[in-house]
Design brief:
Layout (H helix, E strand, L loop, with lengths): L4 E7 L5 H9 L3 E5 L6 E9 L2 E7 L11 H13 L3 E7 L3 H13 L4 E6 L1 H6 L2 E3 L1 H8 L3 E3 L8 H12 L14 H13 L9 H10 L2 H10 L1 H18 L3 H20 E3 L7 H9 L4 H33 L8 H38 L2 H7 L1 H5 L8 H6 L4 H7 L6 H13 L3 H14 L2 H25 L19 H35 L2 H16 L6 H7 L6 H10 L10 H13 L4 H11 L1 H26 L4
Parallel strand pairs: 1-4, 1-5, 5-6, 6-8
Antiparallel strand pairs: 2-3, 3-4, 7-9
């Protein structure tokens, strides 16, 4: 569908950009990668005021420099793809820092609408921002919004439509630098032409003075004399100020932002800290913060364990109440293969996976996850990473695939490889299904918790080893701590659905098909032949029933299928009748450690190449077999 209007959402990270995107596009979103990049691209369509409007959610960035892929993508899209309007989402609680980016967008000559977000929080803090005065100073529409509640969101679109219908405004600089800088910008601007880079000449001149490597490369191909002139002019500015030219320009830009904020913002003293500020102080506390974090994580684990077990039992009883009791081959294949596979998969999906995604969405939208990253910074450094790595590692509890993709936020290839390796060892929701649905339900929740503790120790040990033997060192990082906010039920539900939908569309049919195939193999005794071939590992070393061998192979497709297909292969939903407690623990342990699912392997290949992906896969297979066999022999003495 051809769009009548294209809006690009741009802004710093954690300013509510994704919330506005979700409010505008609903479920009609397309998630992919930017061409030739490993940065996620999100776009969606909106029908508003009889217009089909395409919404592009650009990566969250803090400047239009070239220090990251995200910054290059955003500025190339804005300047070269020419969206009709750029919607700059601004955090009203941190106006000065956000305006630093806004001024750069205006310097680029972008048709701009400013979404002044989080105005509800500024009000609670006693901060008032005169959006009309801000609009007059910047010569661009300013719309106050509360994205999580949808307030002001459609007014943004109205303002964008109105702005797009007007002729381009005169190219009048919003920010004027000092005379010693301005005269040199004008000198350089006269040398440049717009076709030198495709960017506006004034903006290009500023970037050349800042020493932007990407712009220098582009200009050098068409106007090499401009590069020589820029170096001379930049050195003159540095000589005058006794500081580097980029520092001078950035300082003057920050000073301009500060002057604007001083004109439009007023404070009213609040008598006591808000509830969010008190919670923030608690969650960041050196001791109580960790207590709160572990309490939250333990509560999530216990809730999922008990709710999942209750839901599974309920849906099983519902289906079994209408069991026709087939005795023929085709009847058994239909019921024990198809129907049992279906209700077991539904029990897994709605009992474990969907609740986890809802909880994860709640924590994300509340602003708590960055606090966890802050608390985990020191432990992560012992594994050669910084606290930022904690975010994809936390995402891995939902699914290893987005966790691997999320490791793109790591600044170096070394950090990225370590984070990806460790994220594949985190028990995802599919492995959690096996741990809680098997060990938690039949052996005891305390044994399920011990499996998690063991896995975390294994992750810590492997992280230490990788940090020691891989060349290079971990770098420090500065992270923004967003304020706490009440999560939007609409946003949380949409995020959970977008993560859950692929399971329903791809995994459910695959698991049901696998259940039918395994039941057919059981009825025709083919399963015995396959299991016998794998018995030297499964039976002699791991101490498991012979029929589990095939499940490890099929589990590569979907780990959550292992529990469903275990019931199918055993011919019963009461696993305790065919496996001992030790065998259940060992089975869950091997599932937890060995090769990730095929979707994760594909993500590994895409992110780090097939050689490193293969290395991770084979190491984890070896670890799972080794640890599983040792665990069987040790646990047999105690259980």
């Amino acid at each position: 569908m051809k769009a009548d209007l294209i809006l690009a959402l741009a802004g710093n990270a954690n300013v509510g950009k994704s919330s506005i995107f979700n409010q505008l596009t609903g479920l009609g979103q397309i998630i992919g990668n930017w061409p030739g990049k490993t940065v996620e691209k999100a776009e969606g369509m909106l029908f508003h005021d009889n217009k089909h409007i395409k919404i592009i959610d650009l990566p969250g960035i803090y400047s239009l420099s070239t220090y990251s892929q995200e910054e290059i993508i955003s500025r190339e899209y804005i300047a070269l793809k020419h969206p009709d309007v750029v919607v700059n989402v601004v955090d009203a609680t941190a106006l000065e820092r956000n305006l630093f980016f806004t001024l750069q967008l205006l310097e680029m000559g972008s048709p701009l609408v400013i979404a002044l977000n989080l105005v509800d929080i500024t009000k609670k803090k006693g901060i008032t921002i005169d959006e009309k005065k801000l609009s007059k100073i910047l010569n661009t529409p300013v719309i106050p919004t509360v994205a999580t509640k949808g307030l002001g969101v459609h007014e943004i679109v109205d303002a964008a439509i109105q702005l797009a219908s007007k002729p381009p405004a005169e190219d009048t600089p919003v920010i004027r630098y000092g005379p010693e800088v301005e005269t040199r910008i004008e000198k350089l601007q006269r040398i440049l032409t717009k076709d030198a880079t495709g960017y506006p000449p004034r903006w290009t001149a500023i970037k050349l003075l800042e020493g932007d490597s990407e712009i220098i490369k582009q200009v050098n191909e068409k106007k090499p004399d401009a590069i020589v002139a820029a170096r001379i002019l930049a050195s003159e500015i540095s000589e005058i100020h006794k500081e580097s030219c980029p520092t001078v320009i950035a300082s003057e830009r920050y000073a301009a932002a500060a002057r604007i904020v001083k004109e439009v913002r007023t404070f009213k003293e609040t008598e006591k800290p808000s509830l969010g500020e008190r919670i923030d102080a608690l969650s960041m506390h050196g001791l109580l913060g960790y207590v709160l974090m572990f309490t939250i994580m333990l509560s999530i684990l216990l809730f999922m364990s008990f709710f999942g077990a209750w839901f599974s039992e309920t849906i099983e009883n519902l289906f079994e109440s209408v069991n026709p009791g087939f005795t023929s081959f085709w009847g058994d294949l239909f019921w024990n293969g198809g129907v049992v596979g279906l209700y077991a998969t539904l029990a897994v999906a709605f009992g474990f996976i969907l609740p986890f995604y809802l909880i994860l969405g709640f924590l994300e939208d509340s602003g708590y996850l960055p606090k966890v990253a802050y608390l985990m910074d020191r432990p992560c450094h012992t594994m050669g990473l910084h606290g930022k790595a904690c975010i994809p590692l936390l995402l891995a509890f939902g699914c290893n695939v987005p966790a691997c993709v999320g490791c793109r936020i790591m600044e170096t290839k070394r950090d990225r490889f370590i984070a990806i390796f460790l994220s594949t060892l985190v028990p995802c929701s599919a492995r959690t299904v096996v741990i809680l649905g098997l060990v938690g339900a039949y052996v005891g929740v305390h044994w399920a918790l011990l499996l998690y503790v063991f896995d975390f120790l294994l992750i810590f040990l492997i992280g230490r080893l990788l940090n020691r033997f891989l060349p290079g060192t971990s770098i420090g990082i500065i992270m923004e701590m967003p304020p706490y906010r009440l999560p939007s039920a609409k946003v949380v539900l949409k995020q959970a659905w977008n993560r859950f939908k692929p399971f329903l569309l791809t995994a459910l049919p695959l698991i049901v098909l696998g259940s039918v195939i395994i039941e057919a193999m059981r009825l025709t005794n083919v399963l015995i032949l396959v299991s016998d071939a794998l018995s030297p590992v499964t039976v002699l070393w791991l101490g498991l029933p012979a029929f589990t061998g095939f499940l490890f192979i099929f589990g590569i497709l979907r780990k959550e299928a292992a529990l469903v297909l275990l019931m199918t292969a055993a011919g019963t939903t009461d696993i305790s009748s065919v496996m001992s407690p030790v065998q259940m623990i060992v089975f869950a342990l091997v599932i937890m450690i060995y090769v990730p699912c095929v979707a994760t392997i594909a993500a590994l290949i895409r992110e780090i190449g097939w050689k490193r992906a293969g290395l991770i896969t084979f190491i984890e297979i070896g670890l799972a077999i080794l640890i599983g066999g040792l665990a069987f022999r040790i646990l047999s003495f105690f259980i």
